[in-house]
Amino acid sequence: MPKYCVYEGEECRLDKALGDILPELGLRGRRRMIENNSVLVHGIARKAAFVVRAGAVITLLEQPANTAQPQPGSAHAGSGTGLPATLPESLSGSARALERQGDFIFFCKPAAMHSVHLAGSTETNLETLLPSLAASLLQASTAQPEDLHLVQRLDYGTSGIVAAAAKPLAALHWRDMEDRGLCCKRYLALVCGALGTDITATAELDMAKRRQTKVLSSQAPALRHTHFTPLAQLLPQEYAPLCALAYPQGVAPAASSLSLVGCTIHKGARHQIRAHAAASGFPLWGDALYGGGEGIFFLHHGALDSPLCSVRLAPAWLDLLPLPFARIAEQWLMQKEHTQP
Predict the structure, then answer these.
(1) The dihedral of CA 169, 170, 174, 176: what is its sign?
(2) Cα 249–Cα 250–Cα 251 angle in degrees, nearest 5
(3) Are residues 234 and 317 in the same domain?
(4) Which of 75, 130, 138, 157 could pair covalently with 148 via S-S, beta carbons 3.0-4.6 A apart?
(5) Alpha-carbon gap, residue 274 to 283, rounded angstroms
(6) Are residues 298 and 197 in the same domain?
(7) Beta 258-265 vs 226-234: how paired, if at all?
(8) Does any domain span residue 123?
């Protein structure tokens, strides 16, 4: 079914304007849609450089099956970066159901997969896979697989735990827990530089009509803060096995050292950890959008605690780091917190 949108941003090129409508889709994906005549302006297919003004009616069409974007596991950087054609499972993991707790089912979303279906895209996404992945966990239950509703989303390049509600009332309970600061979400990340002490990023974020989240000078509510905990500092030789798989042609983002960092949030905003890390001077390694160098970034949602659930999932790439560092990270993920920030 076509999707109709009214563009309300500033005058700009069509490929840039499309980023306001599909913020999770990269520039290359947007241009592919335009080249496939899947984007109409006032009912007419236009080129990427066509100038769009406020009030323009943009129609998004389903793309033909033979023009599908790369499947899960495909590299999500541009050509010429030295990235492999597919991400090894030891880096990206696989989409699967983890467990059921009450009216919630928890899934693993791999890197290089969207959480939800994007208009005009035929690329596989976690939302579409939910019924088949969760079928065995819903046996002898009144809930139906098609009724599952995601109550969390992760960025395309982020892996880890994603929660879905099996009933509408459960989704409302989840939102209530988040609003009260009762959901503690822990991530592991590799950032550029040597983070030597705990820091808390408190800046407010502007996500409106922009692909890159902007960090403002004003302070955000406590629920939107990001706490960074240094777990280990890695020299190049210590993350060489990770580079060997992620960058088999040897073109890894430059970094004299990396820090393995624990990131804690309670009610996340789009790109919150990525933007706060960069604004604090420690961008995610390989995160081109926020200054970490062109490549693959490593950010994994590995722990989730609330009064109704407790879930743990270590990232697949942790096994490629020195064993002492991996154990520190796993121990950090095991910590629990149910109280308000």
Answers:
(1) positive
(2) 100
(3) yes
(4) 130
(5) 7
(6) yes
(7) antiparallel
(8) yes
The DSSP bridge partners found for residue 311 are 304
Position 330 scores a pLDDT of: 96
In the chain, how many domains are there?
A: 3
The rounded average pLDDT for each run of 10 residues, N- to C-terminus, in the chain (341 residues) is 78 88 76 86 86 87 50 37 52 86 93 82 84 79 71 92 91 92 96 96 87 92 96 94 86 90 93 96 94 92 94 93 95 76 49
Is 167 a domain residue? yes
Kindly report the CATH number assigned to the domain that includes residue 170.
Answer: 3.30.70.580
Q: Containing H/E element for 147?
A: none
Q: What pLDDT score was predicted for residue 73? A: 37
Say whether both 206 and 327 belong to one domain: yes
Q: Cα(239)–Cα(17) distance, rounded to whole angstroms?
A: 38
Mention every residue, 6+ apart, whose C-beta is less than 8 A from residue 304.
Answer: 106, 161, 163, 183, 184, 185, 186, 310, 311
Q: What is the pLDDT of residue 144?
A: 65
Which phi and psi angles does 323 have, rounded to 5°?
-55, -45
Question: Is position 73 within any domain?
Answer: no
CATH number at residue 200: 3.30.2350
**pLDDT score, position 84:** 42
- On whether both 203 and 315 belong to a single domain, the answer is yes
Q: Radius of gyration of the chain from Cα atoms? A: 20
Candidates 67, 58, 71, 73; CA nearest to 22 is: 58
Distance from C-alpha of 63 to C-alpha of 121, rounded to nearest angstrom: 6
Q: Provide the domain limits for residue 24.
A: 3-61
Task: Please give the pLDDT value at position 333.
Answer: 96
